[in-house]
Amino acid sequence: MGTPALEIRKLQAWYGESHILHNVNLVVQPGEVVTLLGRNGAGRTTTLRAIMGLTGERTGSIKVNGVESIGLPTHKVAHLGIGYCPEERGIFASLSTEENLLLPPAVSRTERGMPIEEIYAMFPNLQERRHSQGTRLSGGEQQMLAVGRILRTGAKLLLLDEISEGLAPVIVQALARMIIALKAKGYTIVMVEQNFRFAAPLADRFYVMEHGEIVESFASSELQSKMPILNELLGV
User: Fold this and answer.
1) Does any domain span residue 118?
2) pLDDT tens digits for range 120-131
3) Which residues of 146-163 are buried (b: 16+ CB within 10 A; e: fewer)?
4) Range of the domain at 19
């Protein structure tokens, strides 16, 4: 086994006085799709934000391709080749779809960003709406744009927070195809998902969080045997 794409050891994180993450340990290998499961408030989004340096105090270790990042500011973390797609999407309202896609700078010193033609091939909706203002897109199209934008940066480790939430089934299916395609291209993906049906067929491995801790981890091959525990922890 080579160097993990992401290795977190004994991660603790706070928002002000609130101690949110407690000794979180997880490892993601290059090219894996890993899903963080858990109820709302379990600490899954905070884990993604802590990786990016967007929480308050952090202690422990977060290594990206073997490089320790726990002491780095957010912009330096991004330059390690991480793309973060937050739940709120952050589309620039005054810019067109294409301008939103052309805006991000390259963050990776070694990887070129995905060409815009390739993003349009993955998301034909975006090509059709390329001259539309970002906020005139549907929720699903905005989600596609948010993901497309981080692909433009050259990031190869993607942190995706609830990308299927509130979207029509046809859009969710398009996002699932996107994840399969990105995995085939060698991307590494960490997903926070409430939609278990969406996440289950896509992930290689699962971590389950509760009260800011990892309480269960297992491979996709163990999914059936873990369903009783998941029903108890998640009510799936």
Assistant:
1) yes
2) 999 999 999 999
3) bbbbbbbbbbbbbbbbbb
4) 6-234
